[in-house]
Design goal:
Blueprint (H helix, E strand, L loop, with lengths): L1 H60 L6 E4 L1 H7 L2 E4 L1 E17 L4 E5 L4 E6 L6 E2 L4 E6 L1 H39 L5 H35 L8 E5 L4 E6 L6 E2 L4 E6 L3 E9 L11 E6 L2 E13 L9 E9 L10 E18 L4 E3 L2 E9 L5 E7 L1 E5 L3 E6 L6 E5 L1 H12 L6
Antiparallel strand pairs: 1-19, 2-22, 3-12, 3-16, 4-11, 5-7, 5-10, 6-9, 7-8, 9-11, 12-15, 13-14, 13-16, 14-15, 16-21, 17-18, 18-19, 20-21
């Protein structure tokens, strides 16, 4: 009896210990499974977040289409947009290219310092009207003094040689009369002839030296005195184009001081692209406008066409003469030149309002209507040809019959530009 009780008392702690271990193991397993589930959930959330980020990044990296835009029926009605097929029309071979107004070099004088010297006075300003022979600039220099000294010496030598030649001629005449009277030997008469011819030769040499000295002095613009003064005079009537001379400045020979031009005749200079070289010929008519007078049209006549293209720019130099009696045009003005060829071609013709300038290029919008009343408008770069009062010929980029926006093209352009603007960051 006691042995059984004792055995039961010994087995009881053992059972309690086993039960405690089983309970602990169960609790540990539950905790581990909870941590595993939490870890899986966190991983799943992270993957979802990464997927969302990927999708968002993909959406942000997609750039808007800048070549087309779709309008609803309400937008089309609000913008008063209309479209129609491009019609065919007749157009002469023509082009519009830039040009520049420059002075007519045949009627322009660029005066330079004839010798080294100091500028004393400058009597004109740019834009002043001058007459032929008017004094423009006065200089002082040693070269002019030497030139005037040479003129004086040459003049004195001429006087002396002329006196000697006169005496020799008189002696010859006297010897000829005495020889006729047999009063002198023939040898004296022949000596008188030789002296006369030598004196005449010396006189001719002195006169030539005088002409040379006077020419040198005139080239320097030297005055009548030997003070070294040099005077630059205007060789033509016109206006002062530029003035580089400053009183007190010492300049070397060849330094440009003043330029004078006749503004009644100017040149229109064009650097024509190679593909347009056939449009220009001597005597051809050109029409152009300038920004200063946008409502006025001016005419010019081609007077020179380059014999070869510029190897660097691949352009042909063309010059035309412009009559400028009213002097509205000024040198260095920019011009928009229209030139027409002799041929006539059939090309699509569109209203002037259908052409829009987009990114610096002439553009039309091709209309693609949809059943809902809206339309998609696709930009198309074109090359324009000749113009009339209300229409423009399209040389390249458009086919006859294509639907183009004829009214409201500016609204389509504005919306397309607005769409291409980068989004504002908040």
């Amino acid at each position: 009896m006691r042995k059984d009780t004792t055995n039961r008392l010994v087995e009881a702690p053992s059972r309690l210990t086993a039960l405690s271990l089983a309970t602990a193991l169960a609790l540990t397993g539950t905790a581990c499974s909870r941590k595993t589930e939490q870890s899986k959930a966190a991983t799943s959330d992270s993957m979802s977040a990464m997927k969302g980020m990927t999708t968002d990044t993909t959406m942000r990296s997609t750039a808007p289409d800048t070549n087309s835009i779709t309008f609803t029926a309400a937008q089309i009605e609000h913008g008063k947009i209309q479209w129609a097929p491009a019609a065919l029309g007749h157009s002469s071979t023509s082009a519009v290219i830039p040009g520049t107004i420059i002075p007519n070099e045949n009627r322009t004088a660029r005066l330079s310092a004839p010798a080294e010297g100091r500028v004393v006075t400058v009597r004109v300003q740019p834009g002043d009207g001058v007459g032929r022979g008017q004094v423009l600039v006065t200089l002082l220099g040693p070269g002019a003094g030497s030139a005037q000294s040479d003129v004086s010496k040459a003049a004195s030598q001429v006087v002396a040689m002329r006196a000697q030649a006169g005496y020799a001629r008189a002696a010859r005449d006297r010897a000829e009369r005495l020889l006729a009277l047999m009063a002198i030997p023939r040898q004296d008469y022949e000596r008188a002839i030789a002296d006369d011819e030598s004196a005449q030769a010396s006189l001719s040499q002195a006169l030539a030296e005088q002409r040379r000295a006077i020419g040198s002095a005139e080239q320097l613009g030297a005055g009548a005195s030997a003070t070294g003064e040099m005077v630059l005079r205007s060789p033509l009537s016109g206006v002062v184009l530029t003035r580089n001379a400053q009183p007190g400045a010492v300049v070397s020979a060849g330094t440009q001081l003043i330029s004078v031009t006749d503004p009644s005749s100017l040149w229109l200079q064009i650097n024509a692209p190679e593909k347009l070289a056939s449009l220009f010929r001597i005597g051809g008519a050109l029409h152009f406008s300038v920004p200063a007078y946008p409502a006025d049209k001016f005419d010019a006549r081609v007077t020179a066409v380059g014999a070869a293209l510029d190897p660097d720019s691949r352009t042909l130099l063309v010059r035309a003469t412009v009559l400028n009696g009213n002097q509205k045009l000024k040198p260095e003005m920019l011009a928009t030149v229209s030139v027409e060829g002799e041929g006539v071609s059939t090309v699509p013709v569109v209203p002037d309002g259908a052409i829009q300038l987009l990114d610096g290029r002439a553009t039309v919008f091709i209309a693609k209507p949809n059943p809902a009343g809206g339309a998609t408008f696709v930009r198309r770069t074109v090359e324009i040809g000749s113009r009339t009062a209300s229409n423009v010929a399209v040389a390249r980029g458009l086919a006859a019959g294509e639907l183009i926006v004829t009214v409201g093209a500016f609204s389509v352009k504005a919306e397309l530009q607005k769409r291409s603007m980068p989004p504002m960051e908040m």
